[in-house]
Amino acid sequence: MSDPQSTDFRALAEQYWLGQADLANEHHPVRVSFPGGQEIAPGLLFFKGVAAISVVDTGAGLVMLDAGTPRDIDRVYEAVRAWRPDAPLVAAIYSHHHMDHIWATRRFDEEAARRGWARPVVYAQSLLPEHFDRYRKTQAWNNAINLRQFIGRRDANPRWPVDFRYPDVTFDRDLTLTVGELSFEMHHARGETDDHLWVSVPQRGWLFPGDLFIWAVPNAGNPQKVQRYCEEWGTALRAMAACRPGLLLCGHGMPIVGVSRIEQALTDTAEYLESIERQTVALMNQALPLDEILQRVQPPAHLADRPYLQPIYDHPQFLVRNVWRRYGGWWDGEPDNLLPAPRTQQAREWIALAGGVAAVLARAAQLQAEGDLRMACHLVEMAALAEPGSQAAHAARTRVYAARSAQELATMSRGIFHHAAESSREGRRDFLSGQITGMASGGER
Ligand SMILES: [Zn+2]
User: Fold this and answer.
1) How far apart are the CA of 116 and the centre of ligand 1, in A?
2) Would residue 441 count as lying in a domain?
3) 256-270 pLDDT, tens per residue?
4) What is the 426 CA–ligand 1 centroid distance (Å)?
5) Which tens digit of pLDDT belongs to each residue from 396-441?
6) What's the CA-to-centroid distance between 202 and ligand 1, angstroms?
7) Same domain, 71 and 185
8) Is residue 130 located within the same domain as residue 152?
9) For the segment 317-375, what is each residue's pLDDT rounded down to a tens digit?
10) Which residue from 131, 198, 268, 347 has the least number of CB within 10 angstroms?
11) Same domain, 321 and 406
């Protein structure tokens, strides 16, 4: 493991680009944080927490682009004040509402009151406040889904606050903020969220895509979260490329340096999204059921080796489901699933027909030994549903899902499978189910 204190961001960015950084583990763009900020271009202090945070010195005050998690509040304030002790933070821009992009303005608000400065003006797209309201409404739900997504346990639960700093200025489509000689051109684009924006600073050739670029297959499929938008996302990436920036401050992971590299990364990612969308819609137009579409749609093969398009966070199949949900609905096209019998009842019927839980678990073990973990999961799930008190069923379920989790590259599937394995260790299908009332909020990413 490289030393996070001494890692040079520019050097690491080069390793990222050359495919020499282990983005699945050691340098995972979402999971790995670095403690300090670095001035990666004159007047631009860059932090890599869970997400990126950038602070720009305009000569007429500071502007913050994205504002991190609660853990970033103190460290960003202290690093900025070590860098520029007396320049007020005049503005901050949230790229979207997710919990890893919105917190670090807090100490600057307090400082403004203390030093008699104007409070920083926070900018966001006009749909953002509704999402803060949604988080308050679904606090415990969001806590649960993030525990599953990020391999958390109840006792390790971070108590995320929900006392959000709401924006002062919102806009629908485009807005330019001018501070000193720099303009911050904000553009709305539906993508990872419906309130997403990206920012171009043309005088410097800097571009801030937020989570529209994260050094991974785009987070356009997330199984537990609200709708995402592949097609508009691709359009936004192409609009960003047309700005011909020389420095891309990615929402997660290291920056990309150089016009041609940035153009390639943005247009490849656009093509990836557009391809998934186009294939899925074409098959929907053939009236195929979701199951068949999931088996047929494939990401573009010629992009498979791109270091910035590996499925290390979201999974390509989840993107297909999101397109289906957007243009179709929740029904998967299977008539028996329209008004189904309870899963428990279905499982009891199948398990009885198969000769009982022991026979099913024996077959699951055989499938696991043969490497077919996908089918083994179906069998142990049916066994645990049919006989929820069976220790043998839960032991098998732990074994199968732990192996499945270890095999997965995508954070989201790895986390959910791990959660299933851990739940069966406690003799339950989901240890959060029915247990989350009154828990602190998790928000989402
Ligand atoms: Zn993010």
Assistant:
1) 33
2) no
3) 999 999 999 999 999
4) 32
5) 999 999 999 999 999 999 999 999 999 999 999 998 887 755 444 4
6) 24
7) yes
8) yes
9) 999 999 999 999 999 999 999 999 999 999 999 999 999 999 999 999 999 999 999 99
10) 268
11) no
pLDDT digits (tens, 9 = 90+) for 43-63: 999 999 999 999 999 999 999
Taking alpha carbons only, the member of 96, 59, 53 closest to residue 74 is 53
State the distance from the centre of ligand 1 to the C-alpha of 352, rounded, in angstroms.
Answer: 46
How far, in Å, is the centroid of ligand 1 from the Cα of 98? 6
Inside any domain, residue 52: yes
How many folded domains does the chain comprise? Answer: 3
Q: Tell me: the pLDDT tens digits for 419-430?
A: 999 999 999 999
Let me know whether 214 and 280 are in one domain. no
- Give the distance (Å) from ligand 1 centre to CA of residue 276: 22
Closest CA to 375 of 395, 399, 400: 400
Q: How far is the CA of 100 from the centre of ligand 1 (A)?
A: 5
Tens digits of residue pLDDT in 162-176: 899 999 999 999 999
**Considering the entire predicted model, what is its pTM?**
0.94
| Contact residues for 362 (Cβ-Cβ < 8 A; gap 6+) | none
The answer to whether residue 266 is domain-embedded is yes
Query: Residue 443's pLDDT is what?
Result: 43
Q: Are residues 218 and 240 in the same domain?
A: yes
> How many CB atoms neighbour CB 58 within 10 A?
21
CATH number, domain of 381, equals 1.25.40.880
What is the spatial distance between Cα 424 and Cα 70, in angstroms, rounded to a whole number? 32
- 1 occurs within a structural domain: no
264 and 287 within one domain: no
CA distance 218 to 316: 9
Q: How far is the CA of 49 from the centre of ligand 1 (A)?
A: 10
Look up the domain containing 421 and give its range.
Answer: 341-425
pLDDT band at 159 (very low <50, low <70, confident <90, very high): low
Q: Kindly state whether residues 392 and 280 are assigned to the same domain.
A: no
User: 51 CA distance to ligand 1 centroid (A)?
Assistant: 5
Q: How far is the C-alpha of 136 from the C-alpha of 317, rounded, in Å? A: 30
| Helix residue spans in 139-258 (DSSP H) | 139-149, 230-242
- Residues within 5 A (CB) of ion ligand 1: 51, 98, 100, 211
A 10 A CB-CB count for 268 gives 17
| Claim to verify: residue 250 and residue 143 sit in the same structural domain | yes
